[in-house]
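I am writing to request your help with a piece of structural work I have in hand. Thank you for your consideration; the sequence and its tokens are set out here:
=====
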Amino acid sequence: GPGGAFDDTRTETPAVVKLGNTWHMYYSGCGTTVGGCAGVYHMGHATSSDGLQWTRDPLGPVLIPEDGSNPFAWGLFTTAEPGVIVKDGTIFLYYASARADVFLDADGGFITGDAGPIVRNRFGILVATSTDGRNFTTHQGGARMLALETPPDITRAYSGYSTPAALLRTDGMVEVYMDLVSSRPNGSFVQVGLARAVSANGLNFGPAQQLDPSIFGVGNGGWTSGEILAPTVVQDGNNRHLWFSGFSELVSWETFGGGIGYATEQCVP
């Protein structure tokens, strides 16, 4: 983006959909005027008539984070990593966001011990809808529309989901694929596997199911030993095609490895 724009530092993770005769691209953007790129992203938008030549939305981002006045409300910190479909003339835009959460302290308790409770981010998949591609409904009952979050877990094995990808099945059902986020003791996080959830209306999802960790999980050696993330899925007849990203453990930049994985499955429908 131009200097002073919300995305003047970085644009990434695009997702594209066609509504009517117009292609809409949504992307993560960060910049100097919105807190830099330490996780603070806004949702950018561009349009095209042919999918090749794009015009940046002159009105700026279509989604921005909440103001942080309530750190335990969804929408804090970021609106990024779009996954998008069109269902019955409506765009469903899934995106990663966060809220604060209380995690275990250093010796395994919430209150006792030397560290006390630790407040860190909890990641979830939110959803916004639009009939024109530009103006989105982001709230429901006064709160951001939450599509998916990990169940309560005292061990905090997973702190949430990110990098969603959406699929509109031939039977009208909606699937969202995402990665599993695990928090590290130092406050950082790592994406360690993939999961999928299904919805009839695109808003209310059943429980997410983890995909086979022997295929879509870290710790199996090689280029996926460090992280697995960023799924993309396409259905072609009765075949579902899934691409995903992976990285090796970062020991040094000379030995760092990464790649794009591919898997298929037969599906009914």
